[in-house]
Amino acid sequence: MAERKQINFTIVPDDNGKGPREYANFCAIAHTPFDFTLTFCEVMPLSEQDVRDAEAEQTVRAPVRAKVVVPVQLIPNLIAALQDHLRLYQESSAPGGWDKGPVH
Question: To which H or E segment does residue 26 belong?
Answer without folding.
Answer: strand 26-31
